[in-house]
Design brief:
Layout (H helix, E strand, L loop, with lengths): L2 E15 L4 E3 L4 E2 L3 E18 L6 E4 L2 E2 L2 H12 L2 H4 L5 E8 L8 H16 L6 H8 L14 E5 L8 E6 L5 E6 L10 H11 L3 H20 L3 H20 L10 H17 L3 E4 L6 E6 L3 H8 L8 E4 L6 E2 L2 H15 L2
């Protein structure tokens, strides 16, 4: 081949049962299985061009050429596919992130899921999504779930070959999420660093692993019966337990800010005052996500607007599985990003 091109879009996902901690740092094997909801509102579009005339890999994010360190990460990820193709030509990778990067909104999940699907499309690989998720996982653990839509489980597995994601439910029964984007700046402590420190030093961590297993069984049962309130209660408790492990690490740390605490209190007050089921969760970042019914979104946004500017409250329906884009779609995506970056 002289040139092979693949383009894909993948949406972010927010874990309801958290992935927090690796048992194998090189293969990104998790300490526990997890479950997420894919979101429609945030996504990454990625184009990969393998070209025999290129002399090195390159990586452009949001139109900006990235550092040698970031390019090395991409190169290592692309090398994973050599198991299926033999040697590969160098590649030019371009991505547009329609989600704030490194702010606890799962931008790496959508990024590596989109890249994995784009590579598979370019190289015409005959792989199932589950198989592809084992490769995406090695770029970003949570990206394994962004290859699917709705509620998705990432089974921890016993090895690299079976630590993969699979769909659980389309979440098409009045399920939605509000994101209280209180701070979209890059976080000070990377998820990878926070995870490792917590696993090594938190006395609460073993209890987290055991209860996370129980939470996963419970939430899957609640999803099967479409028991929204049970799903929400399990989600909120699991998220708070994860953050308790960071507070019990030595030295302690937290991803919460003053605005995170304000957002948490706002959700509790609104839930009590309106008697509307709305349940919060937080990943490794300051922003608060609110699992709610789509039919309750309008009233919740109005109530939460008393605490935060409306532009910081982002509503999302469940997102679809990752999918391949056409060249025309890609050109439209670039135009859309350019308009958005210009305000």
């Amino acid at each position: 081949m002289t040139q092979a091109v693949g383009i894909a879009r993948a949406h972010t996902n927010i874990a309801l049962i958290k992935y927090w901690g690796k048992r194998d740092k090189d293969l990104f094997l998790p300490m526990n299985s997890s479950l997420s909801l894919t979101l429609e509102a945030f996504y990454t579009d990625t184009k990969v061009v393998f070209d025999e005339e290129l002399t090195a890999d390159s990586f452009f994010l949001n139109g900006i050429e990235q550092s040698k360190t970031e390019i090395k990460k991409i190169s290592r990820f692309l090398d994973l596919f050599c198991e299926y193709t033999g040697e590969r030509p160098f590649a030019r990778v371009e991505s547009f992130n329609f989600v704030p990067t490194a702010a606890g909104l799962a931008s790496s999940a959508s990024a590596f899921a989109a890249l994995a699907l784009a590579v598979a499309d370019a190289l015409k690989l005959d792989m199932t999504r589950q198989e592809l998720s084992t490769l995406a996982r090695q770029g970003s653990g949570s990206s394994t779930r962004s290859l699917f839509g709705g509620f998705v489980e990432w089974s921890m597995g016993t090895s690299s070959g079976d630590s993969m994601a699979h769909p659980v439910d389309d979440a098409d029964w009045d399920v939605g999420m509000l994101v209280l984007a209180v701070d979209t700046q890059e976080k000070k402590i990377a998820s990878r660093v926070g995870m490792e420190h917590t696993v090594q030093t938190s006395p609460f961590y073993p209890a987290w692993i055991e209860t996370a297993k129980e939470d996963l069984k419970a939430i899957k049962a609640a999803i099967a019966t479409k028991d929204f309130e049970a799903v929400g209660q399990i989600t909120e408790h699991n998220g708070m337990k994860m953050h308790a492990t960071t507070l019990s690490a030595n030295p302690p740390f937290t991803y919460w800010t003053a605005d995170s605490l304000l957002a948490q209190e706002a959700v509790r007050r609104v839930r009590e005052e309106l008697q509307v089921p709305a349940y919060m969760t937080m990943d490794a970042g300051p922003n608060v996500k609110v699992l709610c019914r789509v039919s309750d979104m309008k009233i919740l946004i109005e109530a939460l607007s008393a605490y935060f500017p409306s532009e910081k409250i982002i509503a999302s329906l469940p997102g679809p599985a990752a999918y391949v884009l056409s060249e025309e779609d890609w050109e439209q995506s670039k135009i859309h990003f350019a308009k958005g970056s210009q305000g």
